[in-house]
Each structure stands twice: as structure tokens, then as C-alpha cells.
User: Fold these one by one.
Assistant:
Number 1:
Amino acid sequence: MPSKNILITGGAGFIGVNAAERFLAEGYGVTVFDNLSRRGTDINVRYLEEKYKGRCELVRGDIRTDNASLQELANSHNVILHLAAQVAVTTSVTDPRTDFNCNALGTFNVLEAARLSKSKPKVLYASTNKVYGGLDHLPVSEAGNRVKFKDGREGVDETCPLDFHSPYGCSKGSADQYVRDYSRLYDMQTVVFRQSCIYGPHQLGVEDQGWVAWFLIAAMFGRPVTVYGTGKQVRDLLYVDDLVDLYVRAVEKIDLVSGQVFNIGGGYGNSLSLLEFLEIIDKDLQMPMKISYSDWRPGDQPIFVSDNTKAGKLLGWKPKTEVRKGIDQLLEWLKDNRGMLEQFYKS
């Protein structure tokens, strides 16, 4: 077994499969821990098994209940990348108990396994910008097909007050604070990444989550999409390869960043409103779409753009993939996998 070993919870998901590939390339032994409950995880597992032929181990388990398995794995790994989660705000509203058990209790179980482990693994946690709530204290104004902050700021940094909104915001925010506090209280090496909109290959988007991929897939297959709110809401888009590069840097510089939280996204230069993205699909990519509009959804921020300054200073990191290039790369992957997607979205 390699001397460097990483356990990726939720490793059969979109970010997980990309992270597994990168850490394998970095010489790590990779173990994926996933309950395979999300549709499409079987496709990602098959991809890893076929491409890496035994180099990536799959352990089927649940962070909510399989504490013995978690403990055994924590004992034999140097790093834990904790991605396993319930990821949709809308699902958290309709089923808050499952959301809590996955995000809050599940993260607590991962932390306890790490705390009790003799190997003292480093823990990287994928949090969310939803810990900042609706950003009600930051007034916005409209500017063409998007909104902007009235005070002229381009992004939100880590000093922004926490304001958990929606069960999803509460469960991820609670876990976020547990990860941070375990570093202070138990002398563990942990890092929190409050991530904005991540997109890229292997993203099997649906209406509730993974909207960049979902809009492109809907356009490919002529499916209607619903825009909630005005469509002028803005997000910064971060290509998944750039996110995984950050994970690698954080492990390498863990002594410098342990106990820290980072806002992570594409930044202002890679921000788009929904209307701007739909225009790219329609005019640049020549894929007209069927669009309807509905009311705002709970916890939806009119704008979130990450200020990546802290990650730049401490980790020397910044996004490399310009948003239009990233969209083209994702669309190319979707087209290359059209047959698989047809079957997936038909069922």
C-alpha cells in the first residue's frame, strides 16, 4: 500500500470521482467510501474500476451508521476528504431529518473516527456558501441581466457573518463549525472550504443540484427548464479541476492552513447570472431552450461570488479555467457520453 493514503467519503459523486483521479495521479492510495444512494454513483464507480483496475478501492458504507467501518478506515489513511452529504436545499426542506443525519451527524461521525485514529488523518471538509444565508445585510441592485452588490464589492470573504438559512444551511453550517472547532480543541489538522458553484465532467446535474450541467443536458435533449426567481441571480463558477488542485495544495501545506476556513469559487471574473448562462447556451452554443419561470426557492441568494483572496495568499491558489472554456469542456464531455446520458435521464 502506498505511504500516502486518502479516504474520500462520497467519493462516487461528481467531485469525488474527479478528486480520486487527481490523488491517484499524485501517487496516493485512494479509498472511496460511499453508500451509492445517489443516482449515477454506480456509473462513476464503474468508470473508476474500469480505468484504474484495482488501484482505487471502493468500500460501500454510510457515514450516518457505519462507525466501525469509518474507524477502521481512519486508522489506515493519512488524509480524509469529506464530501459525503445531502446536497440539495429543496430536499432539505421536504426531508430535514435525513438532511441533518447526512450532513451534521455524518460529519460528526467522520470527525470522531479521525479524532480516535492513531494515524491522526488530516481532514478536508467541503462546506458551502449557504452558511452565509441570503446575505440580507448586503443590498443588491440590478445591472442589465444580473444583480450586483450595491456597495461595489466583487465578492464575499470569510469575515461575512454566518447566517444559516434552510435546513441544508443549518446542517452544513453545523458541520462546518464542528470541523473548525475540532482543530482547535483536539489539535487535529482540519480545513473547511465554503464552496460556491462547482461544475465539470462527471456532473450528472438535476434541477435541484448541479445546475450548470443540468441546463446543458436539458438543452442537448430538448427538455424544458424552470428558472426560479428573475434569472438575474449570480453565481461564480469554479471548474472542478481547479477545486481539486486546491485540495492537493491544502494537504501539502496543512501545517500552514490547519484550522482555517476558505471561501472558494470561480471569483468575479468567472461569475454568470442564469440569464447570461442561458444566453450562452442559446446564442454561442446554438442550443435553444424551453424556459419557464417560477417563484424564488428558500435560501436562494440573489448573488454569491467568492472572494478567493485568502486562498491566494496562504495557498498560492487561484482558478485557472476561464468560465467559457470550462463550459465548452463540460459540454464536450457530455457529448462524448451522450449514450450514457440518454439512458440515465430516460430512467
Note: DSSP finds 13 helices and 15 strands in the chain.
Number 2:
Amino acid sequence: MKNYLHLIPMAGLCLLASSSFAQTADSPYKVLDTVKVMGTGGIDYVFADNDARRIYVPRGNQTYVFGLDDHKPMGAITNIGGHGIAIDSKSHHGFSSSSPIGMFDTETMQKIKSIDVKGRPDGILFEPFTGRVFVFSHVAPSITMIDPKEGTVVGTIEVGGAMEQAQSDGAGKLYVAVEDEKKVAVVDLKTFKLVTKYDLGTTAGEPAGLGLDAKNHLLFAMCSDPSVCVVVNAEDGKVLKTLPIGNGSDNGGFNPNTMEAFSSQRDGTLTIIKEQTPTTFAVEQNVETKAGCKTCSLDSKNNRIITVCTERAQPAAGEAPPAGGGRGGRGGPGNLDVLWVGR
């Protein structure tokens, strides 16, 4: 565990001491490190750029950047906020899912421009098969596509329903969790059209997180109310297994190195699901993280999962608590907590 106590020159951020949470000795996964940074505003997604070894967390009207390996804050990109971040490693351009979309240079960490889009941007993904950035919305148009080099809108795809997390198989198929319909949409990236929607069944909740085992063609839909992971055959939509997870999932993924799917939840848990065979699955562990850590991203080099949440800073002795109350630092100042979970 590392401790930092200094000021970050960019954006004048104050870094608080790092800490970790105690885990039982026999737990295969645990919180290895936590970095806290003071800031203002709410958060949604965290994004691990595995190529450049960085972490991006939009909060309020700026995006905080951390080193993926050393965990040190690198500063903040000002005037770039929103829900999530997508990076095109070839052009060194980054994009935030906001309205308008914010485009920035990853090398200088400076904003380039704003891109006007319709709908209500939420999730965002750089899609390798097309080489485009896909922006997902809860209202029409469902998907907006952006040329990452020029930063221009090049088309839209209508799917219907509230789009949440998406995964690409890298070979021409895109899968998107359709939250309000309890389905997973399948989009053909050669024709840019909806192929079908897989129904997750009567025991499924609303899917927000989505993992994909591209090799074995398996989808892991992370649902809330009820809180379950529905494992689906990505080729025909057949439901293979339904497993319990923590409450309040909003993000998930799959690590092909360990053959594990994972889901982060608001209740302060990270559920790890083991793919024992392509037809056999089991909940391996529910890791204690921190309440509010509902989104996550994978460090594929170190097989670690990064999750984030916010909390109100404790007032100094004799001071009144911040106005507005409540947890999460949504309006006033509070800590951004970045957690590294691994073995």
C-alpha cells in the first residue's frame, strides 16, 4: 500500500492518503490499494486504457487521470466531463460521453473540441472492427458513431430501449444491454443494423453491465432487481445459467486471462464469476469494496479490476457538514475513491 500527501499542480487537486480494506486471509481477491482525490460533482464510469496504462474518471466538468500501474494521479482534463471515456490509441484522441461530446488529446491532456450529438449520451466505447467511437443513449438515436480522427458524427443506429454497457467481439458483432427491456441487443457492424434482441428470461432484472467471452461466444448480463447475472449463448441467445450477484450492478466485464466475469455493485461488493467450462459457471467470490462503487474497468495486464465511488469529505472539528447532505459527493465537495482489486 502506498501513501501520497502532496498537491497535484493540474487542477489544484489535493491527494489524500491511500488506504486499503481488510479482507479475510483466504480471499483470492481483495482491495489492494485505494487512492482518494478531493473534487466536486458526481461520477459514473471508470475507464482503464490498457495501451497507454492510464485510468480516466469523469467527474463534474473535468476528467481525472491516474497511472494504471503506479496509481499516481496525473492531473485532470478541464472542461471534459460526462459519463464515460473512450480512447482511440491510433489517433491519441479521447472522447467523453456528454452532451455535447467532449474530444481531447490524450498526450497533452487538453480539450480539442465539442461534438454536437442528439439523444442522451451515457455509455461509450471504441469499437475495433469499425475503428469508430460508439456513443450509447437511453433515447433516440440509440447509437451515434464518431470518426475518432476527425471528431465528426458519421452515422447512427436505431435499436430502441435504454442503451447501457456494450461489448464488441472484434469481428463484426456488437452486443448492448437494453436495460428497460431486459434484453441484449445484437448489432451487425457490417450493415450497421439491429439483428435481434435476446430475451434474458422472466427471472432476470434490468441489465446494465455486460461481459463478453468472445472466444466461447458467451455473454454475462449483470442485472438489478432482481440482482442476477444471466449467462447467454451469444450466437443463439439461449440462457445457460442465472447466478446471484450483489445489489445495484451498473457495470461488468470478462477477463479472458482468468476466465472470470465480474460485476460491480452499489452495495459495496464486486462479484466474481468463474467460467469453469463453456457450459459451467459458479459465483467464486463477493469482494467487499465500498458502498457506491457501481462501475468498474479491467487492467488486463495485471488482472486487476478498478472500481470507483465518491464520498463526502469529513468536516474539520467544529465545522458544519456540507450543505445538501447525503452520500456520493454529487453536488458539493467530496472524495473520489479509486480502488484496485486483485489477488
Note: The two ends are 14 Å apart (CA to CA).
